[in-house]
Design goal:
Shape: globular
Radius of gyration: 13 Å
Distance between the termini: 37 Å
Number of strands: 0
Largest sheet: none
Length: about 70
């Protein structure tokens, strides 16, 4: 599968940074901002690397209040 045109491939250093941010329970939104990637890109990469990321606070609030 080819990466989306215009998005650089993930480096091993970015993968390690993603792991570290996930371990510190950083939100996907903050990870994306810090890594200059979209939230979808961060979630997809985490999924591929089997890294568990925290759910966004907004989703929890919506689910709670419905």
């Amino acid at each position: 599968v080819m990466p989306v045109v215009g998005s650089p491939p993930w480096t091993p250093e970015e993968d390690e940074r993603l792991r570290a941010l996930a371990l510190s329970a950083t939100s996907v939104a903050v990870m994306a901002e810090q890594m200059k990637r979209s939230e979808a890109a961060v979630r997809n990469r985490a999924y591929r690397l089997k890294i568990v990321v925290t759910k966004s606070r907004l989703l929890r609030l919506k689910a709670k209040g419905k």
